[in-house]
């Protein structure tokens, strides 16, 4: 487990105090997941402090017809920034699929209340992480609404170059809001210079 990597990522916008850093280093836990392992977010250990130390994952919703809708991809050095009880729809669960062997660092639930009580800067740090995930989701929604399929795919390749090599095409197509056949056509298209 790389505690320094976690603390460095946590302190990107707001400095982590020595006391907060020591507390987090003491309580930080490590979880390992294998390639293609899927977990239901609700009831899992994944919480808003979870950090993908290595590997990659996707967040998806499964509807009543067992159709999967990819909402977000995570790659190394990303915070999950999602609550365990998050449910966009009452009867649909959110799932996390680990696309390859992955390591997740997180602060166990029993210690989170202490972070807010003992370290005033943690509020600001968490607000910064929440702001980052909101910006990512807003930009993704904007791209879904305004870009054509080819531009969406090119942007995806720029943002997630590794994901395109470890994830099934239909899951990427779902994330991009395009038909898998369209994505197949785009992937087969020669690059123009």
From TrEMBL:
Gene3D superfamilies for this protein: Jelly Rolls
Transmembrane region(s): 6-29
Keyword match DNA-binding: no
Listed Pfam families: cNMP_binding
The entry's keywords: Membrane, Transmembrane, Transmembrane helix
Residue ranges occupied by any Cyclic nucleotide-binding domain in the UniProt entry: 31-116
CDD domains xref list: CAP_ED
The name this protein goes by in its record: Cyclic nucleotide-binding domain-containing protein
Organism: Pedobacter ginsenosidimutans
Organism ancestry: Bacteria, Pseudomonadati, Bacteroidota, Sphingobacteriia, Sphingobacteriales
């Amino acid at each position: 487990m790389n505690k320094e990597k976690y603390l460095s990522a946590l302190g990107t916008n707001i400095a982590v105090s020595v006391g907060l850093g020591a507390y987090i280093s003491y309580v930080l836990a490590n979880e390992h997941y294998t390639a293609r392992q899927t977990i239901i977010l609700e009831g899992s250990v994944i919480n808003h402090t979870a950090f993908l130390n290595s590997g990659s994952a996707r967040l998806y919703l499964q509807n009543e017809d067992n159709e999967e809708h990819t909402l977000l991809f995570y790659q190394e050095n990303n915070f999950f920034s999602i609550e365990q009880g998050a449910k966009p729809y009452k009867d649909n669960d959110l799932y996390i699929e680990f696309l390859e062997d992955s390591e997740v660092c997180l602060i166990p639930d029993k210690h989170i209340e202490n972070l807010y009580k003992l370290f005033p800067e943690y509020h600001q740090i968490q607000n910064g992480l929440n702001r980052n995930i909101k910006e990512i989701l807003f930009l993704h929604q904007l791209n879904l609404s305004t870009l054509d399929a080819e531009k969406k795919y090119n942007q995806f390749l720029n943002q997630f170059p590794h994901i395109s090599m470890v994830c099934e095409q239909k899951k990427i197509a779902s994330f991009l809001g395009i038909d898998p056949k369209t994505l197949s056509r785009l992937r087969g298209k020669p690059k123009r210079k």
